[in-house]
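A further point concerns the way the authors explain their paired sequence and structure data. An entry of this sort, consisting of the sequence and the corresponding backbone structure tokens, reads as follows:
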Amino acid sequence: MNYIQYSFTVNPPEPGSDILIALLADLGFESFTQNESGFDAYIQETFDNEDLIKDLIFHDFNFSYIRMIIPKTNWNEEWEKNFNPVYVDDLVGIRAHFHPKSNTVKHDIIITPKMSFGTGHHDTTWLVSKTMFSVPFENAYVLDMGCGTGILAILAKQLGAKKIIGIDIDDWSIENSIENATINQASDIEFKKGDATILPSNETFDIILANINKNVLKKDLPNYFTCLKKNGHLLLSGFFTADVEELTHLAKHIGFTFLDSYYKNEWSVIKLKK
């Protein structure tokens, strides 16, 4: 599956870029990289609909864009040229094999992201990783929805989880997650291709991690409630701070208890309990 890159030029960039990114996230865009004049946005070719973008009109700012198809092989080249280690305070270091191990972090994770999104650089990965340290993973049964490169599943293993399942809709993500888990001595993590429809009907989880996007989370929240054990924890991320109230209201309506929410730049994570 190819990805489509839209390179947006926004005038003025602020707050135009933030507003446009929020709308694009609702249209299925998965990743954004901001720059001085705007940002780059990425969406799977299957979900791309350029007509929806052409219809966007704003009175406070204007934008233009260049659209291009990015072959899968390009991700390897870009990653090797630009990938830098990521540090979640002194808790986690996420690095490539050619970076030296840091002696100042408690947990070391090595990844080779290849064509998959999820290098750890995104604020949502940082947020979920940090929030995981406030949840009891020892001997837990964990589900990682939208596992990407497997970072969160691997961290769950390092925090003491007993059994872990990672699920993603992308073939490359599953293949890469398996590879990264093996590199990090976590080959017993089970990775499956699919979405919430393949969740086991006869098993429940102590902890569910779901770092996807708002629309998928809204659709799948009832499934997460069904699959979560009583007193189990759910960490949601992949959305903007402006979406916290809407998601929290829906989660409470389903039966979850709101515990807390945390922020990094314009992104958020919500911590819930059943």
Summary: The chain has two domains: 3-70, 118-273.
